[in-house]
UniProtKB/TrEMBL annotation:
This is Transporter. It comes from Rouxiella sp. WC2420. The keyword Nucleus does not apply. Signal peptide: none annotated. Keywords: Membrane, Transmembrane, Transmembrane helix. The chain crosses the membrane at residues 12-34, 40-60, 67-87, 93-115, 136-157, 177-194.
Amino acid sequence: MQNPIIKQVITFLILAVCAAFSAGVLLFDVVGLGDQVKEISATEIIQEIFLLATAALFFIQSRKHKNLRGGFILAAGFFGCMLIRELDALFDYIHLGAWVYFASMLAIYSLCWAATTPKTTLNGLYALVEDEAFPVLLFGLVTILVFSRLMGLHFIWQAAIAGDHVKLVKNLVEEGIELFGYTLCLAAAMRISWVKKTGK
């Protein structure tokens, strides 16, 4: 068995790399590209790639492990819906707010599949929750869905910063935190997939 101290040091280093990577991408956007982290930016594109990769990893696991399929399809569907939401500007070319319809269809598909195979759904969810990487996945989701939203509240930055840079700073903070959350989720999904592949 691996030394628990070494194991936690490795975990710390992986999380530190995730944080540094997220900050580095934001720095590249702002300093390197002179961008303001709009819809088309390195930060946004990498967020979408990471979401796609996370959803794909869970979907692949659902195909490989029939006994866990329902739970992994729910996870894949959840991250797929998040990806569609991130691509809302693209779906707006079809119709304003069209992302809702596509996300709803994916959510219904995932929920119906989970409902028709309740045993594999429960097995899959238990397998996810019991995995050592699940707390990292959970922390990533809290970072994306709660912390980034709270830190992105306009009135906080309006009270702290004078002038016309309020929206810029708000976007930088919110998108940078979101990227960190997506990086954590992808790292956790990779770890879960590796464990399921090797049977550890």
